[in-house]
Amino acid sequence: MRRTRSTAVLVAAAVVSGGLVLTSPAYADPTPAGTYRQLVGVGSDTTQDVMNALAGDTVNGKSYAGTAVKSADGAGIASYDAIEPGTGSTSSTIKTRSDGPSFLRPNGSGKGRLALSESLTGDKYPDSAGASIKGQVDFARSSATPSTSGTALTYIPFARDAVGVAVKGSALDTLTVDQLHDIYSGSLTQVGGQTVHPKIPQSGSGTRKFFLSAIGLTDATLSPNVPTVQENQGDAALTEDGALVPFSVGSWIAQVNGVAPDYTKDAAAAGGHLAAVRLPGDSGATTPVTTVNGKLSPVTAYYENSTFGRDVYNVVPSRAIDPTSIFFDKDLYDVFVTSGSHTAELASDAAEQVIAAFGFVNEPYNGSTSVARHAKLGGLEESGIDTSTPAAPGLKATLGDASVKLTWTAPAATGLPVTDYRLTLTRSDGSVAAVKDVPATTTSYTFGDLALGGCTATVSAANLNGTGAAASWTGTVKYGSTTTASAPKTAYGKAPKVAVTVTGTHGVVPTGTVTVKEGSTTLGTGTLNSSGKVTVSLSNHLKVATHTLTVSYGGNGKLLASKTSVRLTVTKATPTVTTSAPTTVSHTAHAKVTVKVAATGTTPTGTVRIYEGTRVIATGTLSGGKVTVTLPLLSRGSHTLHAFYAGSSTVSAKSGANFTVKST
To answer: How many CB atoms lie under 10 A from the CB of residue 341?
Structure first.
């Protein structure tokens, strides 16, 4: 169930009044010591106590094991304090994995986001003298918005907080934004006759960043005389009359009510309190807290105010909560993200009761990853790294049977290496047909089982900074076709025939034309019949040889083109040889023999020889397929002769029948 802001405040009051004031010792970090959990968080001390409780640890002597937030698969949260529990040391180390390194405890929102960034890049935290912490942090607690632009990190709101001004002394009961600006810039040193002693949280604190922005200052315009104190520790800051310090209202409530570890109750008992602030545009001042059943509770109007009200976040790698990414972390998603019908475990009824008990206000957008619903996007918070995303890869596309195969080459190298490629296929109406994320080592992918029609495919390379420019291809998805062909051996002079059959997939009968080529020369074309078949007749003057032909089907509106190759052997023509000669001749006269050579589809050329036995007695050259050969004088008697055609490049050699000439 998602509850409204006002309902959450009542829950907070009810939980507080229900006896969460505890006097047992305070504990923090995963308990017992040496406990390791899957989802590791560091950073803001504004939200550390409530996150420790949501992790199921013991906070201020109360065990929250019964309401520990876990993913659907049982992955739990490990939330590490901003400073060392018990000692307050800011130089202690933590170890977040059983096999991981020890590294400096991240103190504050900025340091938490830096640790998360360097857990992704594998760089050393907090600087080159530190430890490489790749894979040691999964999320960062943050009470501030991004410090760098980009999309690498998603800031997921999980509650509403406000920044108040903790003061000591009645002269500071009511303050204006202008007064706060002048106090912290150093131009106003007294209010109502009381000398002011402003304090500011440590560098990297989200509260510090938020407060300075709210009053119109920056670190550069902050008075150098303002001392630094640890964030949200009233006892250390409110040490004299006139002292004031920005403070998380949620943290103040939780500490004073005894829900969170106590760094403030002594100061509150000595008169420390949250000042009423005249908000911009208001005529009167608004107090950040009210009292319900003897316990502090949020004032909704103050939390809602755009100047001092703020969302607090859990910051996660954007790719880790993207279900289409190869880096998707379902456990992280289950715990932190509310999307569609999926509700973050941190936004469950039980979790929201804990959140309200720690002085925060629950919102309908808890767990949202949409920038339209309070989420923020930011870049890696690490100085000195290349913040560019990759250029577009080189892209080729090959259409297949209801499929598109994409093949690409890596873009030019950037400062951060390519980690993956994002592939998107959209239909001609703009709707998304498919999305696929593949590792950087992959350079091809096939989208299959697609519907027919136009589509556009894009491929983008990504690195830790985000997804780069897209390479794009647009085409039309069709079914596949297969072309087969046969060509029987054919004699020169006869027209060769190529029998072609085209088969379509998905029961589609091919229509269209077929083209037969040898090299770049078109030898013939034909139109498929209703069965997807055609016989293409070629020229009867193809040279005598074995020809390798390409048979191509051009495709149609539903079918892709296809082709095959076929070998056609053209042999020499087989001739017929006929002779005409006198049966008798005088031995003093020369007989004449007419020889005709014929072949189908061609007129033979070449030489004809007249033989008597194995001896050539006369020759002639064909003209128009015939020749008259004059024989030499023949001796008296009968002579058995035959004509022999010697053949040509296109017609085979052939001997004619014997004939007899009698010389008298």
So the answer is: 5
Strand order in the sheet with 521-527: 490-491, 562-571, 545-553, 513-518, 521-527
Question: Alpha carbon of 297 to those of 164, 405, 534: distances in Å?
Answer: 13, 60, 87
Contact 155, 202 (CB under 8 A): no
pLDDT at 279: 82
Backbone phi and psi for residue 655, each to the nearest 5 degrees, phi listed first: -95, 140
- The answer to whether the pTM exceeds 0.90 is no
Q: Which amino acid is at 481?
A: S
Contact 174, 149 (CB under 8 A): no
pLDDT of residue 204: 84
* Res 19: pLDDT: 35
Nearest by Cα to 581 from 656, 503, 526, 659? 659
Strand 481-486 with 497-504, pairing: antiparallel
Helices (H), 122-195: 177-185
Q: Under CATH, what is the fold of the domain 481-571?
A: Immunoglobulin-like (2.60.40)
Q: What angle do CA 460, 462, 468 make, to 5 degrees?
A: 55
Burial class of 497 by CB neighbour count within 10 A (0 to 12, 13 to 18, 19+): middle
Q: Where in the chain is the domain with CATH 2.60.40.10?
A: 405-471, 481-571
Phi, psi at 156, each rounded to 5°: -95, 115
Tell me the pLDDT of the chain averaged across its residues: 93
User: Per residue, what are the HEC states of 465-513?
Assistant: CEEEEEEEEEEEECECEEEEEECCCEECCCCCEEEEEEEECCCCCCCCE
Start-end ranges of CATH 2.60.40.2470 in the chain? Answer: 576-663
Q: In the CATH scheme, what is the code of domain 576-663?
A: 2.60.40.2470
Domain 161-307, CATH number (from 3.30.70.260, 3.30.559.30, 3.40.190.10, 3.30.360.10) = 3.40.190.10
The CATH T-level fold of domain 405-471 is Immunoglobulin-like (2.60.40)
CA-CA distances (angstroms) from residue 643 to 576, 577, 636? 11, 8, 21
* 460 touches 422 (CB < 8 A): yes
What are the phi and psi torsion angles at 385 (to 5°)?
Answer: -105, 155
Cα(254)–Cα(22) distance, integer angstroms: 11
Residue range 380-389, pLDDT digits in tens: 999 889 999 9
Q: How many CA atoms lie within 13 A of 447 on its CB side?
A: 27
Separation between Cα atoms, residue 427 and residue 422, nearest integer Å: 17
Among the listed residues 139, 138, 121, the one whose alpha carbon sits nearest the alpha carbon of residue 130: 121
Which amino acid, one-letter code, is at 502? V
Under 8 Å between Cβ of 443 and 431: no
Residue carrying structure tokens 């039309």: 476
C-alpha–C-alpha distance, residues 465 and 454, integer Å: 32
Q: What residues pair up with 491 in beta bridges, in sequence order?
A: 571
DSSP single-letter state for residue 452: S
Low-confidence ranges of the chain (pLDDT < 50): 1-26
Locate CATH 3.40.190.10 in the chain.
161-307
* Nearest by Cα to 500 from 528, 521, 522: 528
Give SS3 for 493. coil
